[in-house]
Amino acid sequence: MFDPQLVDVEADMAKALDSVKRDLAGIRTGRANPGLVENLRVNYFGVPTPLKQLAAISAPEARLLVIQPFDRNTLNDIERTITTSDLGLVPNNDGRVIRLNIPSPTEERRRDLVRLMRKRVEEGRVAVRNLRRDALETLRGKEKAKETSQDEMKRASESLQRLTDSYVAQVDQVGGAKEAELLEV
Fold first, then answer.
1. Phi-psi group of 115: left, alpha or beta (phi > 0 → left; psi -120 to 50 → alpha; rest → beta)
2. Which residues, 6+ apart, have CB-to-CB distance to 62 below 8 Å?
3. Do residues 97 and 145 share a domain?
4. Are residues 112 and 137 in the same domain?
5. Residue span of the structural domain in which 166 resides
6. 8 and 64: one domain?
7. Which of 79, 101, 123 represents a domain boundary (last residue)?
8. Residue 22 CB contacts under 8 Å (≥ 6 apart), including other chains
C-alpha cells in the first residue's frame, strides 16, 4: 500500500546521496579534478552561472587544471571568482586560458579538509534521516486517520528503516573513499 510513498522517499534519498557526492567532489585533494571548480558560480552579465556552462575545464596533468572560456570576455570574471572562492588556488591568466596549479596540501591542511569532509558527510546522513522522519510522520498520520492498519504501518516502517540504513551506508562509503583520497600523500 505504501510502495508509491517509499519510491518517492527513495528518490529523495538518492538525491541527497548525489548532493553529498557533488559536495565532496568540490573538496580539493592533491590531484587536479574538474569537479573542483565546475560548480563555482561566476557572475556572468549579472547572473550567477556555473563555471562548467561558461568554459571547458580539463586536467591535462595530475596537478594542473586548464579552464578555457567559450567567451574570452569572461576571463576576468572567472579569475575573480576562483580567487575569491575558498579553494585557496591562484589562477594564472594568459589572455586565452586560465591555468590552476594544484599544490599538494600540507598535513595540517589535509586534517582540515578531512574535518570539512566529515562535516559534509554527517550533513548527508542527517538529510537521509530527516527524509525518513518525514515519511514516518506521514505514515503515522495515515494510521491515525484509519487509512491503514497497524500491521501495514509496521511493515512500511521496517522497510523504510532498511532503505534509510542502506543510504546512510552509501553516504559513509562515499565519505570513506574521499577520506582515503585526502589522506593519500
1. alpha
2. 31, 32
3. no
4. yes
5. 3-25+106-183
6. no
7. 101
8. 35, 39
- Give the CB-side neighbour count of residue 22, counting CA atoms within 13 A: 9
Which of 82, 101, 120 represents a domain boundary (last residue)? 101
Give the separation between CA 28 and CA 17, rounded to whole angstroms. Answer: 19
Q: Are 63 and 75 in contact (CB under 8 A)?
A: no
Residue type at 68? Q
Query: Distance (Å, rounded) from C-alpha 81 to C-alpha 136?
Result: 42
Query: pTM to 2 decimals?
Result: 0.71
The per-residue pLDDT for range 88-120, each reduced to its tens digit, is 788 998 888 999 888 877 888 888 888 989 999
Distances, alpha carbon 105 to alpha carbons 32, 40, 170, 178, in Å = 12, 21, 27, 15
State the CATH number of the domain containing residue 112: 1.10.132.20
